[in-house]
Design brief:
Elements: H1 8-67, E1 78-90, E2 93-105, H2 117-268
Antiparallel strand pairs: 1-2
């Protein structure tokens, strides 16, 4: 079996070939049956002609024996001058058709030969004509048998080789293409599943990264806020200390001013600042 390509184009070619074989096979089978029928018919006719020839020969031999002058009839007294054949056609086969024959008679002395020689010559022409007809019929059988053998070989080739082989090729290609289609579907589903898994994984990774970034930002913001609060607290403490220092200075200045004021008042109460009215 020749190696075939497992493709859709090859599948189409094999299906077309199968249709052609199945279309031609009935024609070849019918031709084979027709040839067989014609061969049997012609063979039966040839046998019938041969039997008539034998019967005529036997009758001729008995007839000559009655006269007791068998040597009076010579073999060259009747000869075939021309065989007339036509052309026929059976199931596309060109065959010869016997249409008759022309005979010539040898010269013989009418006074020295018996009277029955002319009748014997007529019977001899009939016998030769039957032989020629049988030969033509047998030639027809031979030609038809050659065509029958060729047709039978073609029928067997189509029926037992080409059609089973083509069906097997179609089945092989169909199974392979079906497997390929199933494999493609499976690969598609696997690819889709892998893409879904990859997308899900990417989404999860993105979500995790976002959460990590959010936590990092939150942590950084918390750290910065703690630093800001700490700085604010230190600044507030510093301001508070400044305020306390200012208050203390204020109280100190206030006390100093009060002491100064008291000293001035006390000074004013001294004698030096007393005004005496003159009398």
């Amino acid at each position: 079996m020749a190696k075939i390509k497992l493709t859709k184009n090859e599948l189409k070619s094999q299906k077309d070939a199968l249709k052609m074989y199945q279309r031609y096979l009935p024609t070849l089978t019918l031709k084979k049956q027709q040839l067989q029928t014609e061969i049997r018919s012609i063979d039966a006719r040839a046998k019938e002609v041969r039997e008539r020839r034998k019967s005529l020969e036997a009758e001729f031999a008995q007839w000559i024996a009655v006269f007791g002058e068998a040597d009076a009839f010579k073999a060259d007294m009747v000869q075939v001058k021309n065989i007339r054949k036509g052309v026929g056609n059976i199931a596309g086969v060109t065959i010869p058709i016997y249409e008759g024959a022309d005979f010539t008679r040898g010269d013989y002395d009418l006074y020295s030969t018996p009277l029955w020689v002319d009748l014997a010559a007529d019977r001899m022409e009939q016998a030769l004509s039957l032989d020629l007809e049988a030969d033509v019929l047998e030639e027809q059988v031979r030609l038809l048998q050659v065509e029958l053998r060729t047709t039978t070989q073609r029928v067997n080739l189509f029926e037992k080789v080409k059609i089973p082989e083509t069906k097997a090729n179609i089945k092989k290609i169909t199974v392979y293409l079906g497997d390929q289609q199933v494999a493609a579907v499976v690969r598609g589903k696997i690819s889709k599943k892998n893409l879904e898994i990859a997308a899900q994984k990417t989404a999860e990774e993105t979500q995790e990264n976002a959460l990590r970034n959010a936590h990092a930002i939150e942590k950084e913001a918390l750290t910065k806020s703690e630093i800001i609060v700490s700085d604010a607290r230190r600044e507030l403490e510093h301001i508070h200390q400044k305020i306390v220092q200012l208050c203390q200075q204020y109280e100190k200045y206030k006390l100093q001013f009060k002491n100064l004021a008291a000293a001035q008042i006390e000074l004013l109460e001294t004698e030096s600042f007393q005004i005496h009215m003159m009398e």
